[in-house]
Amino acid sequence: MAAQDPNQKKMATVTAGKVDLKQRQIRAHYDEETITVYQAYSSEIASKAVDQQKLCASPQFRLTRMTWIKPSWCWMMYRAGYSYKDKNQEHILALKMKHEHFIELLEMATLTTEPGKGIALGDTAGSSKPARGKSSVVKVQWDPERTPRLERLGYRSIQIGIPSSLAATWADKWIIGIEDLTEKGRALERELRENPGVTDEELLRRGLVPPEREFLVPLEVQKVIRMD
Questions:
Q1: How far apart are CA 19 and CA 29, in angstroms?
Q2: Among 22, 109, 110, 219, who pairs with 138 as Cys (CB 3.0-4.6 Å)?
Q3: Where are the domains of the chain?
């Protein structure tokens, strides 16, 4: 497990949307060794990735593109429309990484806006984008967090862009577990549609929304990615 900064504030458990309302805070589903991030892929890429437990198992997975990952389940639901938005993003994969590798990505990061110019506000960090050259710079963007109903919240959720130069290492070595959660996302959408009065607490209890807690990172990393 990666060492955590002893000067960090106590973790706040995220349950049913009740969080410490910091503007820029990493919240995720994690255990003592791994953290879960999400991305949506086509059926071809996702099925082979799950079967072989290798994200790059399908030749359709391109290592020449920047890939954006996110630790927020609700933001993934927003970006992929519960998996219904785009046929090339119709499978939601949960990707497990070790803490130290996740933090290593952040140590190499720069914001998508210049320092001092604010945080990018657009919801543009969801799909793979062509990488420019062989940059080793990891991109970080802070977008508005979402509720299970995809409503915009007043605080931010981190998106992490992995450049082509790191894609092979990340996909082949740093991902240590892959699970297809497409049906879970669709079950969430169905429950919200059929039972609009369902509470966030009930969604959490039924496993349609995962428990997410503040994930602490070293102070130097906080400065790099302009956390609160």
A1: 14
A2: 109
A3: 13-224
Q: Which residues of 111-137 are buried (b: 16+ CB within 10 A; e: fewer)?
A: bbeeeeeebbeeeebbbbeebeeeeee
Q: What is the DSSP letter of 70?
A: B
User: What pTM did the predictor assign?
Assistant: 0.83
| Residue in the structure block whose two tokens are 């593109």 | 65
Q: pLDDT tens, 75-89? A: 999 999 999 999 999
> Quick one: which of 131, 134, 138, 80 has its CA closest to 112?
138
pLDDT per residue as tens digits for the range 15-60: 334 445 689 999 999 999 999 999 999 999 999 999 999 999 999 9
Strand locations in the chain (E): 13-14, 27-28, 34-41, 65-69, 91-98, 109-111, 129-130, 138-146, 152-162, 175-180, 212-214
Return d(Cα 198, Cα 216) in angstroms, integer: 31
pLDDT in tens, 65-122: 899 999 999 999 999 999 999 999 999 999 999 999 999 999 999 998 744 333 333 3
Task: Find where tokens 């992490």 sit.
Answer: 160
Rounded (10°) angle between helices 73-80 and 182-194: 80
Give the phi and the psi of residue 56 in degrees, each rounded to 5. Answer: -95, 20
Task: Name the residue with tokens 């070790």.
Answer: 98
